[in-house]
Design a protein that fits this description.
GO terms for molecular function: sterol binding. This is OSBL9 protein. It comes from Rhagologus leucostigma. It is a single chain. The chain is mainly beta. It has a single domain, classed as Porin (Beta Barrel), CATH 2.40.160. Helices cover about 10% and strands about 40% of the residues. The chain has three helices and ten strands; from the N terminus they run ββββαββββββαα. It has helices spanning about 35-40, 150, 155-160, and strands spanning about 1-5, 10-15, 20-25, 30, 55-65, 70-75, 85-95, 100-105, 110-115, 120-125. Strands 1, 2, 3, 4, 5, 6, 7, 8, 9 and 10 form a ten-stranded antiparallel beta sheet that branches. It is globular. The two termini are about 25 Å apart. The model is unreliable at about 35-50 (pLDDT under 50).
């Protein structure tokens, strides 16, 4: 049993300190709770379920028009038999290059490792060691009609 959300469109992120503007696409999202093999073979006569989990899957991209750097990212879904959850691979490209200067693999919610074209290997990021930074969001009355928090304010209110 699972539910999937196919994300369409793109997001924009601006790094004010560097005057850089990034356009990115999003992975698909899945809520998973797969029945055990026993359930599958005896047609749900028993109800033995795994612990539910959230999973990301699919391909994404990140592009910076100012610098020309771009990245291609793949969120791998867990295979039915074996395998690991939350896997990610990515390649980062210099402007106009067809060959990546950096390849990344690991877990999107854990540790990711980088392998550079120079042969150097390093920890790219350890998300468990990252500090939590509080979002800075404009007040609702200062947002445009179609900004996310303004658009969904009634739904958010009623969910609370």
């Amino acid at each position: 049993m699972s539910i999937g959300v196919h994300n369409i469109g793109q997001g924009c992120v601006t790094c004010l300190d560097h005057d850089e503007h990034y356009i990115l696409t999003f992975p698909n999202g899945y809520g998973r709770q797969v029945n055990s093999l026993i359930d599958i073979f005896i047609f749900n006569a028993l109800s033995i379920l795994t612990v539910p989990w959230i999973e990301l899957g699919g391909e994404c991209s990140i592009n910076c028009s100012k610098t020309g750097y771009n990245a291609s990212i793949v969120f791998h879904t867990k295979p039915f038999y074996g395998g690991k959850k939350h896997r990610i691979t990515a390649e980062i490209f210099s402007p106009n290059d067809k060959k990546p200067f950096c390849s990344i693999e690991g877990e999107w919610n854990g540790v990711m490792y980088a392998k550079y074209s120079t042969g150097e290997n390093a920890v790219f990021i350890d998300t468990k060691k990252m500090p939590t930074i509080k979002k800075k969001v404009r007040k609702l009355e200062d947002q445009d009609d179609f900004e996310s928090r303004c658009l969904w304010k009634d739904v958010t209110y009623n969910l609370k």
